[in-house]
Structure formats: structure tokens, C-alpha cells
Amino acid sequence: MKKVSIIIPVYNAEQYIATTVESVLLQTYKNIEVLIIDDGSPDQSIQICQQFNDSRIQIIRQENQGVSAARNTGIKMAQGEFIAFLDADDLWLPQKLAIHVQHLSANPTLGMSFGRVEFMNFDGTPTGQYSNPCFKDLTSKKLYEENPAVTPSNAVIRRVALQQVGGFDLDLSGFADAELFLRVCCHGWQVEGIDKVLVLYRTNLGGMSSQLYRMEEEWSRVNSKVQAYAPELVKTHYNHAKALLLRYLARRTLRLHLSSEIGINFMNRALRSEWKLIFKEPRRTLLTLLAVYSRYFIPNLNMSKL
């Protein structure tokens, strides 16, 4: 039975870490090691982790260096053939690892496996929203344009693939996972999804507009990284990828209940980046366009479910 290494970076997660670790220990697939990386957490998170009496759990301490560095520490320590990542506030459904191990074992060219995500509010209540990505025939173009896994908590990666491509880029934060997944694909590994909900992803809707602009800035840094190993990808598909990002940020303004002017700004710039987006992806583009402008003219309209 192949071992799976589970890497959980921990920093200020005392409110959620117990249920997160429990969701790992309840996995139907039992040959695991759980690497909890204490990234200099100042709260009671690690004391809570120490209460679990399970020999498969290791707690590794380091000074605070950020989540990407914590994940990379886990990668270096991992002994499993497959490596799974789990953020300290997310949850796995019990069959997740068993399904991924079967998926990866049956496909030796498969470098990364992921499933569908169910979104929950930060208090753990369901939102009724699910990820609906492309699962098959994923090319570097598709991974450059959008992150089908949504979150690191959804990815299970073959350790040899991570050894080949390196770990998470320490210069990136929010897009570090998407860039790593793209790198796996660009190095010749297949990336494929499973059409089953396997992760409960806790979303923080308490952000401010400045966070969305920082996401746009970081996306530009991602492009400079990708330019180094896949320059033709950036040259050929930059405008379309930028348009998709800006459309996504426009939708986020609806979920965050931000000013309609911010949403309109993102959506207008998306169409300036590639106006053909209306014809290439008419449903999502027109719905987003309608939503952001409707909120401008009808301020009390609730379209946060878009």
C-alpha cells in the first residue's frame, strides 16, 4: 500500500485546526503520514495538535517564513510516494485520499490529481456553491488561464514530480499553488481531475478591494515566472488569461459586496484585454457583465451567488 504524505502548514489556526486534523485521521485510506508544519504560530494551534494521540502525526517547527516555505519544509520531509496539501482551515471528505491513490496508481504519467470543491463560509456553513472545472485534457494553456484545483487543499501530487519541478515559489503567495500546478504540467506531467466533491474549502469573504488589486499585481509576478520556462505560453495567451483573471475579480466584488464601480472597472478592463471573451465564453461573461452593471443601477440587488 503506497504511502501518502499530508502537509498541513499551521499559523494562527486554533479555531479550525482540530476539525481539519480530524478530517485527515478519518480518511478511509490509512497508510499516511501527517506533517504539521508549525510556521511560528503564536496561538494555541500546536498545543491543540499535540492532543492527537496518533503515531502518524509529526509536528515540525520553524520560524515564521510564510505558507509557501512551510509547505516546502513539508515536501523535504515527506516520505510518501504521493504528497497532499491541506490548509489548516479546510476539510477533506473521508474517501478523498483513497480515490486519489487509485487515480494516480492507475495512471503512471499522471503527476497531479484533484477533485471538486464545495465552498463554505468562514463559519463553516455551506454556501451551496461548488467548483465546476475542466477535468480532462488539461493543457498548459488551460492551467495558465485558470486554476482548476482552486486550492492547494485539493491537490495530490506525485512526489517524483515535485522533486523534478521544485516546490512552491517563495516570491508568490496567493497564486503560488496555481503556478506550481502549471509547472508540473509544463514539465510533461499529466494533470487530471476527478468529478467528485472531495474538499470543503473555507472562503474568507471579509476582504477589502485592496486584496483584489493585490491579486492582480501578484498575477503579473506569476507571468514573469512563467515567462522563464514557458515564454510562448505567455506570448500567445496572455490577453485571454488576463481577461479571465479580471472577469473573476469582477465576480469577487459581488461576493464581497464591494462597490459596483470596482466590479465595473474589472469587467471593463477584462473586455479591453480581450473583447472576444463575449463570444468565446458568452454565458459566464455576459452574466458577470449584467451582474456588475445591474448592481450599479439597482444598488440593493443581491447577485452574490453568481
UniProtKB/TrEMBL annotation:
Highest rank taxon of the organism: Bacteria
* UniProt xrefs under InterPro entries: Glyco_trans_2-like, Glycosyltransf_2, Nucleotide-diphossugar_trans
Segments forming domain Glycosyltransferase 2-like: 5-165
Query: Which Pfam family is one of this chain's hits?
Result: Glycos_transf_2
What is the protein named?
Answer: Glycosyltransferase 2-like domain-containing protein
